[in-house]
Amino acid sequence: MWRRRALTRRDLSRMDRHMLSDIGLTEGQALDEVAKPFWRE
After folding, report:
1. Rg of the chain over CA atoms, in angstroms?
2. H/E element holding 18?
3. What is the overall mean pLDDT for the chain?
4. Which of 8, 25, 32, 41 could form a disulfide with 20 if both were Cys (CB 3.0 to 4.6 A apart)?
5. Is the pTM of the predicted complex or chain greater than 0.70?
6. Cβ neighbours, 10 Å, residue 9
């Protein structure tokens, strides 16, 4: 589960504004998620 979170957050960090919009996230929401340590939900 921790590895999946880490990989998901890495992927989010690589997405541009349009890709984030497609999945329903703003840049701010993505940055907040990426800033979390992998062990936090």
Report:
1. 10
2. helix 17-22
3. 96
4. 25
5. yes
6. 16
